[in-house]
Family 2 glycosyl transferase
Amino acid sequence: MALLVIQFLLVVLVICSAIFYVINGLVVGQFAQESKQNYPTPDPQSVSLLIPVRGLDEDAANNWHSFCQQNHPQYEVIFGVMEPNDPAICTIQKLLKKYDHVRLIYCLEIHGINYQVSNLMHLLRASRYETIIFADSDIRVTPDYLSTVTAPLDNPEIGMVTCGYMDHHPRFLGAAMASLNRCVEFLPAFLLGRALDGGLKFALGPTIATRRQVVRAWGGLEQVVNRIGSDFHMGRLAHNAGFRVELSAYILDNCCGQESVPQVVQRELRWARTIRINRGIQYYGLGATFGLIYGVLLVLATGFAPWAVVLVLAMYAIRLGQAWAAIHTFDCPGLYRWWWALPLRDVVSFGVWLAGAWGQRVYWRGRWLVIQPGGTLQES
């Protein structure tokens, strides 16, 4: 009797996973249609591009050059470095000599536990223009980046624009695992969250485009300087202040370089615990979506019964179709060569979800932090 109950539960979980994959495929298809929408070409806005930096990521020089080579009539790029001996300073100083619209601010006073937001607070005060972009330092952009992500802000109802991100051409297994997660799992789930919420109520950190008046309306960066998932909270605060949050059709290129699989898992565990704190019960609902795990258990529990094998194969065919749709829509052709790693990615994702279901400690840029109830941070 107990075995029958287990088999029944596994069947339900396999079917739930298949339904989840279908829905993910549908929301990705909807995004593909939205991406064809052309916003009216507004008069170009003067933009302050604010980039907090700590250390040198792989290929940082090329990433930062891409920020400085925009097809945009008037913009400034301001890098912020907290420590006077940061190795990034030398590279940024070379940019200062080449581009007259680039500035560097360093030796910054710490305002809170979240050093990245603390850095941004200084950069925001030093910036000149009404339209601002908070950008991570480890992304690479094309010359139309500024114009594309700021175009929706011409609509006064839209207060924030954010972007998906992934490594479009991963060269190593760790990078491929990270990119598969973002392409076939994270961004589709982000789109599903948007659908369930009736619109975006949160943002993604690698790029947040907004206006200075919007930041003032939700109380300023001081509201998120001690929080984990500051990007999530910025989007939520903007929404609560009465502004729409939009997802740009622009997909950022976030090169993961030679990251090892353990490094990727450590970062994803931080994200998992952040999502659990911020999304609550929805996080635990993801437990019903790991079809490969439940499928293997079902086949074993039924002694390789033909009906179970057929059900699991059908479910995973849907999974492969959903993954293909995401790779195609988000323009990540480099992931096709890593197709074989998708089952491994599914197993790792289950492990990360399980580990993220409890615990408060996270590792972030060389620091161990503890997430407090409500999402605030303190040193471990």
In short: Residues 2-35 form the longest helix (34 residues). The radius of gyration is 21 Å. Residues 53 and 344 are 33 Å apart (CA to CA).
